[in-house]
Amino acid sequence: MAPQRGVTVATTDFPLYTIQPVGDSHLLVAGGGGQAKTGVPNAVEIYCLSPLDGSCILTKVEHVETSAGPAMNGCVGTDNKNQIVSAFGIDGSCYVYRLRPKVITQKVEETGSVQTDFSSGDGYQRAVRFTQDISVMVTGGADGSLRTWKFPDLKKLYEVKAHTDEIDDVDISPSGNRIVTIGKDCKAFVWNTKDGSKKTELHWDCRKDAKYKFRACSDNGVYLGVGTMSGSVSIYISFSLQKLYHLSKVHKIFVTGLSFAHSTEKALAITGNHDTTLFSISADNQIKMHQVAAQQRINPLFPILGFLFCIYLIYWIITTLGL
Predict the structure, then answer these.
(1) Which Gene Ontology BP annotations are present (predicted)?
(2) How many folded domains does the chain comprise?
């Protein structure tokens, strides 16, 4: 089957704000209608990815309502015992859930929460990440402070006034020894995970008028996904920024989250062996799938054989003409 371009693979009954892959074959989404009693639920849902005719379909296997409010950001982590946990930012607090895989479904259970943002008004956690061994959880919020927490105890290790404005995003290096933060003050910093000391500042030309809403990077670092305020989705090669894919206004409203499917052999087999598969979400309650077709790759022996043939042809012409 040809790669799917912006096809709707699932529709929820609540606005979607965060999306995360769970292993090679599942996808977690969360969001909601807010604290007001509007009849729109605040919930977490898990979908199973299954191969179908060279692409894949999504089947809902779990639905859990979050009584505290809608999850606006989140992350998923797996420890060395294959225990899966997820953390969600709901207002100024972080709520932790444990995922218990079953034969058919995924069981989701809340295990704890902690206040992570202390803004003068209503607190708002903006981002959360785990180290790879999920021994440390890192949060950033509207108050501009970076906080690290011992996990699963949720005891604060330290906090740093990282930015003069809201923290937009945080990430942790694969080794776990560095944290990166970016903020609305157009600054980015690298921090020592152990003690919160600043290692360096990253510099770039900041455009406050940029119209993109969300971005994501594939787990192999090859692809970059961008979602915009107009509901458009694009995929680029990360090291060259060559545009591979673009679909205008695929969502009815701004994009709220992006997530690439994993690039393992198992995940590629599920999604149809395309070069990459990107999922996008929005407050329009829809999960869309975007795929880039596998590129035809030239066998490296062909250029070598062609070069040798050219040398032989030149030699034959020279000897034939007696030159």
Answers:
(1) endoplasmic reticulum to Golgi vesicle-mediated transport; protein transport; regulation of COPII vesicle coating
(2) 1
Asked whether the beta carbons of 263 and 208 are under 8 A apart, the reply is no
Q: Note the pLDDT of residue 1.
A: 55
Q: Tokens standing for 90?
A: 């709901």
CA distances from 310 to 15, 286, 302, 318, 322 (A): 62, 56, 12, 12, 18
Beta bridge partners of 13: none
115 touches 123 (CB < 8 A): yes
Asked, for residue 126, whether it belongs to a domain, the answer is no
Give the pLDDT of residue 210: 65
Residues of the domain holding 256: 5-115+207-321
Residues 223, 238 contacting (CB under 8 angstroms): yes
3-class DSSP state of 310: helix
Task: With respect to residue 149, please indicate whether it lies within any of the assigned structural domains.
Answer: no
Instruction: Give me the torsion for CA of 141, 145, 148, 149, rounded to 10°.
Output: -60
Closest CA to 66 of 47, 85, 91, 102: 91
**Is-contact 283 16, C-beta < 8 A?**
yes
| pLDDT per position as a tens digit, 183-221 | 999 899 999 999 999 999 998 777 766 666 678 999 999
Identify the CATH number of the domain in which residue 225 sits. 2.130.10.10
Q: List beta partners, residue 200.
A: 190
In this structure, is residue 14 part of a structural domain?
Answer: yes
- Nearest CA among 128, 146, 149 for reference residue 197: 146
Q: Is the link from the previous residue into 15 a cis peptide, with omega within 30 of 0?
A: no
Question: 250 lies in a domain?
Answer: yes
What confidence tens digit (pLDDT) does each residue in 130-153 have? 999 999 999 999 999 999 999 999
CA–CA gap between residue 247 and residue 228 (Å, rounded): 11
Beta-bridge partners for 118: none
**Can you tell me the distance from the alpha carbon of 206 to that of 185, in angstroms, rounded to the nearest whole number?**
9
Question: In 22-52, which positions are buried (b, 16+ CB within 10 angstroms) versus exposed (e)?
Answer: bbbbbbbbbbbbeeeeeebbbbbbbbbbeee
